[in-house]
């Protein structure tokens, strides 16, 4: 892939800086967590997701926003329905996306917590029931390939969903996310870059 990158910013993404990040405690980046988000719930497009991740969500625009406007959250990237990528946090920094969660690290043979410390978070604009678009899968595969080149500890076995790391409180990316199709796209892009 010949994208221009600069210090953890993907050259194909539109940059929108979030204040919701801090330094990673170590240089480890070895997990990718996939999320789904729509604001208001079930509605796509608009600027509410970007407003949430930049602490500018206007409570008066929708009743649901009053319950979440106080949150200080972010993800490294958002992939819109049309495949547009928006990057909020440098991949070398810790975004605030995983929350209370834990993950079985098969390489270390142990449960791990404080996943934001060593993970990357990608939000897909969507919900649990609406199929994601081909453009989203293509963009997700492209950025995942870039991340795996940038962070050698990250491989296909170290990609998970938010529901898998916080099953009692999260359901995303949900049953509408086609894991098999995503892995097919990722394998195709990997082969194309060899």
Secondary-structure blueprint of this entry?
Layout: E1 14-15, E2 21-23, E3 31-37, H1 48-53, H2 65-68, E4 77-79, E5 85-87, E6 93-95, E7 103-105, E8 110-112, E9 119-125, H3 134-150, E10 159-161, H4 162-165, H5 179-193
Q: Care to describe what's here?
A:
The strands form three sheets. A six-stranded mixed beta sheet has the order 1-5-4-9-3-10. It has a two-stranded antiparallel ribbon with strand order 2-6. Strands 7-8 form a two-stranded antiparallel ribbon. With 194 residues, the protein is an alpha/beta fold. The protein is 24% helix and 19% strand. The chain is globular, with a radius of gyration of 16 Å. Mean pLDDT is 94; it is low at 1-5. The chain has five helices and ten strands, in the order βββααββββββαβαα.
């Amino acid at each position: 892939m010949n994208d221009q990158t600069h210090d953890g910013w993907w050259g194909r993404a539109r940059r929108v800086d979030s204040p919701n990040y801090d330094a990673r405690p170590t240089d480890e980046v070895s997990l990718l967590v996939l999320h789904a988000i729509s604001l208001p719930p079930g509605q796509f497009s608009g600027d509410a997701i970007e407003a949430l991740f930049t602490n500018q969500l206007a409570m008066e625009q929708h009743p649901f926003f009053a319950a979440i406007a106080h949150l200080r959250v972010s993800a490294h990237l958002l992939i819109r329905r049309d495949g547009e990528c928006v990057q909020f946090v440098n991949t070398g920094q810790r975004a605030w996306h995983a929350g209370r969660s834990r993950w079985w690290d098969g390489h270390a043979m142990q449960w791990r917590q404080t996943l934001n410390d060593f993970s990357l978070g990608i939000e897909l604009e969507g919900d649990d029931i609406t199929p994601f678009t081909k453009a989203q899968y293509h963009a997700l595969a492209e950025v995942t390939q870039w991340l795996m080149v940038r962070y050698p500890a990250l491989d296909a076995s170290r990609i998970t969903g938010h529901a898998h790391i916080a099953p009692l409180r999260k359901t995303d990316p949900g049953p509408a996310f086609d894991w098999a199709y995503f892995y097919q796209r990722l394998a195709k892009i990997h082969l194309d870059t060899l």
